[in-house]
Structure formats: structure tokens, C-alpha cells
Design goal:
Oligomer: homodimer
Helix content of chain A: 25-40%
Largest interface: A-B, 58 and 58 residues
Structural class of chain A: alpha/beta
Order of helices and strands of chain A: EHEEHEHEHEHEHHHHHEEEEHEHEEEHE
CATH superfamily of the largest domain in chain A: Dihydrodipicolinate Reductase, domain 2
Number of helices of chain A: 13
CATH topology of the largest domain in chain A: Dihydrodipicolinate Reductase, domain 2
CATH class of the largest domain in chain A: Alpha Beta
Number of domains of chain A: 3
CATH architecture of the largest domain in chain A: 2-Layer Sandwich
Strand content of chain A: 15-25%
Distance between the termini of chain A: 52 Å
Radius of gyration of chain A: 24 Å
Number of strands of chain A: 16
Largest sheet of chain A: 10 strands, mixed
Chain lengths: 431, 431
């Protein structure tokens, strides 16, 4: 038998999938998985002109794919969570397997989708939703099944990593680098989902769900983006031996029922393996109780890396279909009856970088130190430089480990002081 | 049904597998893969005392496991290629699936084993044979199936990487670090297979076979170990901005039918991602035509990391058995009718680090440069330091890209000169 594939959404990634499928056709066939691209749908029909497929395969109507009884597998590459959700649910209800690269859809509607797949006896694969071509999902679900995964730290948004890398190397400010990134295609016209941390949050929600065998709701994850990071922060971090990255962090806390999940800028030591992940590259650092630390590093986005992941899903689904095992990996635990509690970020214990913008006058440092001390926060190091404007002078403090609630309490008091001239910058330090 | 497992070889890794299987039992069960450790064999029966299994399961005779008709899967953790080979072939002939961590066995007897598996309609899994708990085999065979993998560069022997890291950090010589590594268990009493490069060669042979869909014979791979690397080489490399690593290199050459496969010490730029892989850690840098560069990093050996890989194979085999798909991944291409030609190392083009030990007299550098020039080898940089003994002075030359055969021709002429006082050191530079 030949596995019949329908592709819905023929944009950049869709075009890449078609290319990679055609290139690997004979490899898949030799490995016992003959596949055939049977139908391609996109409402933007001008996209068909550049595709290496015959006109007869193409349609503007996604339902031509969904209603084609000969199609075994639907690849959803539409993006967004509205029509994409409809397409996925309708495909599953027609007992078609689904492959998607849609992180937002899985993160926000995972339980509905997996329950629908389970009910219909078909599978949903989503390797491309996290980390582009890096086999992150496969590694978590299969390669590391001998482990209780106790933590994940990840740089999972290429746009943010590119911006932070260029800010760091060229001493530029966020806005300038963002403009350049938009000009050369590394950032979207509306960059909010990337630079605001939401895209990282979607991917972190998916990984957190997988390692906790439950559903980690995206909208409960504390998320901070990189828009407030200044060149000053980057150079102070550098001076202190740290690099600033947008990190996704997942920790199974020993003494808590809930999960510590969050996305925010963080300082990592220069010799930390994540500090060496630059430009558009992504990395996922996984800590398993048997395997120890594993890092997977690569390109987390782009036409061909993402297509590589989609095609690996095609191979898995084709093997399932040919082997008559419709559901090989369980769809059942990622469901709405098994929602994981996310710990409040105020409960974490971390070290902190604080940059206060203060009036240059005697007693200010003593006052700040005293307010921190009242919350049990002790200071590891201080940098106070000479005045860099008539207005304010930066005071940099690295704390020892402290409870975030205490730190925020101290900051809220300090922020009220007359000597504070601008919002205090706070960046967590990850070990 | 419950999948019945027989374990043969209850040493360090075997004990780890038992621990991890017990710990993950309920996870595997929930995921639809109930497994049961039915039998454990080891001729060293004293090992049973520390195992968390009942005496009734244990036997000194491997054939008690092989002849037990209730056993579906045999895990071979004996090591070596003699009795281990017998056990694997006998298990396959009894239509039992085989899981092994034995890199030497797969590298040296792969075709016989896979042909036997194919003939008997069962599967052989060997994730633990390469890179301990890192999902390298799974990534190559499944996660990256959308790619033509065009090159692999890898640090795949923890003992060598530990020795080179300590030599580099503490300015020690090879012999001293080896002794310490043996004392603290990071090196075997007979370290030949590790420091001579053979262990890396086994793993590289397996990866090379997988990416070329054929059989890359281990005994044809050019292999050099790290025993000749001196603290002097490491410090000159450092001075030039390079780190010395034992690398496995696989390149699909564009203009050649054969494969470039080799294991040798190599200099990599300090900012190369492989330069940051230190101590016992391993890394596999894979270059795929769709995905670009992917790095997998982790612990390549040890009780629990290796057990993690074995248990992931158990899960895969259990899924196959329960899904009634005896052979999910093809066993057929890794066979004796499909032997891959390995290109002579003399055909590679590389940059080279050369350390000549010469008499400190006028004209020596000119003579060396002239012999190199006659072979078309141009010099990129030179370091000549003041005499460090009455006898000899080191002259360091970094070449531009050159054909290895020409370089060796030049060296064989230079080595005959009276001004040469010791064997010339040659280390390839990898981009």
C-alpha cells in the first residue's frame, strides 16, 4: 500500500515539506514506507505556481483534502489557532492522522485535539512544533523514556536569540536590532509573539506537558519577553561573566505537587553550555534522572529544518499505518482531566541581577541594601560606576539565592524611594 | 500481554538496566507497554547478590535465557565479540528480538547479525552502542529521516575527552593523566581500545553505516589515538586559538563514490561548538541537507546513561511486539552485499598543524618550507620559540589546505634531514 498524504497550507514550510518529501521519496520507499502527496490546499492559490506539483493536486478549499476518502494523513501547516483548529479536528473526526507544526494550536488546544484523536483511533504528531528540525519531541517521548525528566532549560526562539546575540556582539539597542532583523527576515513584521516570549511559552508548554504526563496550560505560564533588556544590562552581565538569554525553564520541584514553568530573560555563566548557543540557533538542555544532562542543539525554524521534522513525522505515521498500529504513542494523558498546577513564580528561589537607576548621593546604596536585608536577601556583589548622565547612576547588585516573593516585596518598597529615578531592572540568574 | 525480557550480562550496565526498568515499570505500563524482567544470566553469579531481583530469576547459564520459550526479548550486555556474538545469533535464531549495547559486535559483525535478524523476522536495537544515553541512533534513523546526512563530526569516547581536557587544563602529560583516570575509574586497566581510538572507531563505523545505507567495515577505517599528543601540542594549539579533541569524522565527498571516514586527534577552533565539549562528555554534530547542523551532547557512558538507552530500546521493541510489527525499522540494508568503500586518508584535503623538533641552526626553517612548497603546501603561520633544551627546538607550522598525500610525501623527505631530531608531530585541523 501507499500512504496518501494531504497537505493544507502551502506557505514557506509547506513548500519545504513538498521538496523534502520528493527528495526522500525513494529512501522512504526502500525503508518500506511508500508515501504519495495526493492533495495540496491553500486559499492563496498563487502559491501553487512555485510548487513542484501538478495543478490537478492543488485546491483552494481545505475541505477538498478533508473530504477525500483516499487520504490517510493530513499535514496542517496553516498556522494560527482558528481555522487550523477546525482543520485538525475535522481531519481527526474523519479518522485521518494529523501532523502539525503548529505550536500555538498544540499548546492552547492540546487536550481537545488529543482527546479527539484518541476517540477516533488515530494519531497526532507534532515534532516540528518544538525546535524545528531538532528531534526534541521524539527524544522526550521515546529516546528518554527510561528517565524521569526533572528539568529542562531551553533557548527555543531563534528571533530572540538572534536579537540578544547581536545586541551583545555589537552593543546595539533592542529597537535597532529588531528593525534590522525585520529587514532581513529574522523577525516578523509584528514581532510580539517572538520578542514577548509567547512563542517560547507555547513550546515550553508542550515540553512541560510531555514530561509531566499531564496538560500544562499555556495561559498559566509566567512569561516575560526581552523588550526591556538594555545594552547596559548586557554589558554589565558581560563584565560579571554572564550572558543574557531568553530561557524557558521547567523544574519538577521536589517538595511541591506543582511544576515550576516559566519563560523570561536569564543570565547564565559564560562557560554554561547554553551561553555558547548564539544567533538563530536553539538548544534544549534536558536533565533526566538516568541519563544526566543531554543537550540538543540546532536550527529551530526555517523552511527546510521545519520540513525535516514534518517528514520524520510522516515516516512515523506511515510506519504506523503500514504496521496497522494506528496509535503507537499514547494520546491519552495529554488531556483536560489531568491539568498540571503551575507554581507561582513568587515561590522560586533564584539568584538575581538588579540594576537600580538612582540619584548619585550618599546613603543610597546603604538604603537599598538595608531594604533587601529586611527581606533576608544577601548581596553577592555590587557594581557602582561613575555617573553617566546628570540624571541617574546605575547601581548593579547580584544577590545570593533568595525567594522571589521576598525580592519583589523589597523591590516594591525600594521603588517608592525618592532616590529611584527609573524602573528597576531585575534579571534572574540560572545555574 | 506482557513483554518478557531476558537479560544476559549483569555487570555495571546490566544492573543499571534492571534499576531503570523497575523504576519506569509503571510509566511503561501506562504507555501501553507492560514489560517483565523474566530471567537474568551471568556466569559471575556473585553479581546476583546486589541485584534487586529474586534468586529464582537468576542463572549462570545464558542458554537458560535463550531456551526459555516465554522470553520475547534478549538484552545482551556481555561485551566482547565472541560469546556475545553467539548469544545474539542464537537469540535471533530462536526468533527473539535482541537489544545490545555492544558497539564492537555491531561494528565488526553487523551484517551477519542484521541478516540473521531479517531471516528470522525479528529486530535488533542498539541505541546504547553509540553515545550512551544520547538518542543518536534514533535521531539518525528516525528523527532525521528527511535528510541526506552529509557529515558527522563527533567526540564519542569519554575517556579520551577526559584525558585531553585534563591535559589541557592542568598542563599534564598523557601518561600522568591516564594513571589518574585509571585510579578514579575513568579509564580501563587496559586502556588500549579507548586511547588507541578503537572504541571511537566502532561507534563511527556504526554511524557511517547508518548514514550511507550500507556497511562500513570497521577494519578499513583509518584510526589514530591520542597517545602521541604532548602537553606542548596542547599549549601551542591554545596559543593559536585551537583545542585538541579526538574526533570521529564522516564526510560524504561530493566528487567520490567512497566515504571519508576516520578517527584521529584534530584541532578545532576555540569557538567551535565541539571545543566546548569537555571532560567525559560526548557530542555528535550532524549535518543534514534539510536540517542543517544538529548537535546532540551528553554522557556517552556509565551505568545509568547506558541503561537509559537500553530501556528506550525496550520500549520500542515492546511497542513493536504489542503492535505485532516485528520489524519496524529495516534491518536489510546493513548487509554484506552492500559494503561501502572508504576513501584512503591520503585523499583528504585538510589544514595541518606540524611540530618539527629541529637543531637550532640557520636555514632549517627555510629548508622545511622549501620541501613543503615542492609539494604545493603553503604555510599559514609559523611559531619558532627560543631553544628549550640544548638538544632541540620546536618549529610549529600551520599549513593552508593541502592534500594529505602531498603532506606525507613532504614529511617523509624532511624526516630524513640531519636537522630533524625527533618524529614530527602532525595534527589535522577540522573546520
Amino acid at each position: 500500500m501507499t500512504v496518501q498524504i494531504g497537505l493544507i497550507g502551502a506557505g514557506t514550510v509547506g513548500g519545504g515539506v513538498i521538496k523534502v518529501l520528493q527528495k526522500q521519496k525513494s529512501i522512504l520507499e526502500k525503508a518500506g514506507m511508500p508515501v504519495r502527496l495526493a492533495r495540496v490546499a491553500d486559499k492563496v492559490t498563487s502559491r501553487f505556481e512555485t510548487l513542484p506539483v501538478g495543478d490537478a493536486l492543488c485546491t483552494a478549499d481545505a475541505f477538498d483534502v478533508l473530504n477525500d476518502a483516499s487520504i490517510d494523513v493530513v499535514i496542517e501547516l496553516i498556522g494560527g489557532v482558528t481555522f487550523a483548529r477546525t482543520v485538525v479536528i475535522e481531519a481527526l473526526n474523519r479518522k485521518k492522522h494529523v501532523i502539525t507544526a503548529n505550536k500555538a494550536l498544540i499548546a492552547e488546544h492540546g487536550p481537545e485535539i488529543f482527546e479527539c484523536a484518541e476517540k477516533n483511533g488515530v494519531s497526532v504528531y507534532f515534532e516540528a512544533a518544538v525546535g524545528g528540525g531538532m528531534p526534541v519531541i521524539k527524544s522526550i517521548r521515546e529516546g528518554l523514556i527510561g528517565n524521569d525528566i526533572v528539568s529542562i532549560k531551553t533557548i527555543i526562539n531563534g528571533t530572540c536569540n538572534y536579537i540578544l546575540t547581536r545586541m551583545s556582539k555589537e552593543h546595539l539597542c533592542f529597537e535597532d536590532v529588531l528593525k534590522q532583523a525585520q529587514a532581513n527576515g529574522y523577525a516578523e513584521a509584528d514581532p510580539t509573539l517572538d520578542v514577548g516570549g509567547g512563542d517560547s511559552g507555547h513550546k515550553v508548554a508542550i515540553m512541560a506537558s510531555l514530561i509531566s504526563n499531564g496538560y500544562v496550560p499555556y495561559d498559566k505560564i509566567p512569561i516575560e519577553g526581552i523588550t526591556s533588556i538594555s545594552p547596559e544590562d548586557i554589558s554589565f552581565a558581560h563584565e560579571l561573566g554572564y550572558t543574557i538569554k531568553l530561557l524557558g525553564v521547567i523544574n519538577k520541584a521536589e517538595d511541591s505537587e506543582g511544576l515550576d514553568v516559566r519563560v523570561h530573560p536569564a543570565m547564565v555563566k559564560d562557560d554554561h553550555i547554553l551561553a555558547s548557543v548564539s544567533d538563530v540557533f536553539n538548544a534544549v538542555l534536558i536533565d533526566g534522572d538516568a541519563v544526566g544532562r543531554i543537550l540538543i542543539y540546532g536550527r529551530g525554524a526555517g523552511e527546510l529544518p521545519t520540513a525535516s521534522a514534518v517528514v520524520s513525522d510522516v515516516a512515523d505515521v506511515a510506519r504506523n499505518i503500514i504496521g496497522k498500529t494506528a496509535i503507537r504513542l499514547p494520546m491519552s494523558y495529554y488531556n483536560s482531566s489531568n491539568v498540571v498546577t503551575i507554581n507561582p513564580i513568587e515561590d522560586i528561589v533564584s539568584r538575581y541581577y538588579l540594576r537600580f537607576s538612582v540619584i548619585d548621593e550618599p546613603g543610597v546604596l546603604a538604603s537599598i541594601a538595608s531594604f533587601l536585608g529586611e527581606q533576608g536577601i544577601s548581596i553577592a556583589s555590587v557594581i557602582q560606576k561613575e555617573r553617566h548622565s546628570d540624571e541617574s547612576v546605575p547601581v548593579i547588585i547580584l544577590t545570593h539565592e533568595a525567594l522571589e516573593s521576598g525580592l519583589k516585596q523589597a523591590l516594591s518598597i525600594i521603588e517608592e524611594m525618592d532616590y529611584i529615578l527609573a524602573r528597576t531592572q531585575m534579571i534572574r540568574i540560572e545555574q
